[in-house]
Amino acid sequence: MLIESRAVAPFFKNGYILGCERTREAVVIDPGDEVDALLDVLKEHSLRAKYILLTHAHLDHITGVAAAKRALDVPVWLHRDDDFLYEGVVQQGMMFGLRVEPQPKVDHFYDDAQTLDFGQYTVSVHHTPGHCPGGVCLAVNGDPESNGPSVPGILIVGDTLFAGSIGRTDLPGGDSATLLKSIRDVLFRFPADTPVYSGHGEATTVGHEKRTNPFLR
Ligand SMILES: [Zn+2]
Ligand SMILES: [Zn+2]
Predict the structure, then answer these.
(1) Which residues are near ligand 2, the ion (C-beta closer than 5 Å)?
(2) What is the pLDDT of residues 118-136, one digit of tens each?
(3) Helix (H) or strand (E) holding 207
């Protein structure tokens, strides 16, 4: 699987492109202010985006949706419980003193056991509230063509879990007990060597966070 991330000021939030090397199908995850760099990644690798997938609807994760949708004309997916944040993006901007344009309507809300394919990969959507009500983590299977020991899948976790930290819970709809439960009951059930790609900062693994994350020991 091709995994690329980009981040720019002021939020340094990671936007992701996941691509299938064989079919060239891809998904765009959390396009924000770095959206032009994400669109460049698609071009550089001759990838065709199939979906825009959102882990949640905080400002920094959605300001590039309009530009991505204009360029790619593919459906936008979000969890229903974050639609109030998505529709309130202009007000979210005001809280940070930023002028933000309204974004195009979400096309689809994730079902309870939603799966979405791109090329030979399947994205499984897991509801992980706590940082916000409609936060989700996206699990993608490992390389289906690899021989020998099975390759772990990956997790894209938005702002639920970070290397050495966890998401903030002081924003509207946040709740720390709910967040810890989401991490323990959903993310920590994946194999220890599963790579974890967060909304901000460096990637980590499930096992490393289980062992060392001060919020979860
Ligand atoms: Zn967030
Ligand atoms: Zn964020």
Answers:
(1) 13, 60, 159, 199
(2) 999 999 999 999 999 999 9
(3) helix 206-212
Distance, CA 196 to ligand 2 centroid (Å)?
A: 15
Rounded Cα distance, 190 and 5, in Å: 22
CA contacts within 13 A on the Cβ side of 8: 11
Could you tell me how many residues make up the chain? 217
Cis ω on the peptide bond leading into residue 10 (within 30° of 0)? Answer: yes
Distance between CA 18 and CA 103 in Å, rounded? 23
Enter the pTM of the model. Answer: 0.96
Cα–Cα distance, 211 to 30 (Å, whole number): 28
Under a CB-based contact definition with an 8 Å cutoff, are residues 203 and 196 in contact?
yes
Centroid of ligand 1 to alpha carbon of 115 (angstroms)? 22
